[in-house]
Design brief:
The protein is of the alpha+beta class and 175 residues long. The protein is built from five helices and five strands; from the N terminus they run H-E-E-E-H-H-E-H-E-H.
Length: 175
Amino acid sequence: DEVENASEHKAQLEKQQNELAQQYEKASGQLTKLRAAAAARLSKQVETELKSLAMSGTQFQIVIRPGPWTATGVDEIAFLVSPNKGEELRPLEKIASGGELSRMALALKTAIGDAGSHRGMPTLVFDEVDAGVGGAAAAAVGKRLKQLTRANQVICVTHLAQIAGFADHHYAVSK
């Protein structure tokens, strides 16, 4: 039967493949729309957080580009940053220093809030989050780190009392 009706089986499989492809494209298109709306909201929230972390001139944008078909949709997502007004947005991983990257992660995690806690991130580690900040900005960093401890274990390497003062436990490390 398979040999005698091979062309009919092939046509049936091609028809089924086309139907499934249309369903996938429809579902992935809806997912892209949802992601775009969420990306716009999250970008604004992250910029708001960055202002309080002594990065007020920083622009942050989540860009969604078409990509290959995957189990999670057809979107490739990039975080673009401009640390100074007037500069063009560039990929986060290309321009952020250690301290900036750590504060961006803090801003992103704070903006996401408890929604990200169930995604397998029970322990967050921040190093150099205090680089280039002091005074009120350092206190703001400490408050946000403390906020994250409601749903996560937070480990922070810091040299600032304004940040360390928010911790429940302290460890001193020396050479």
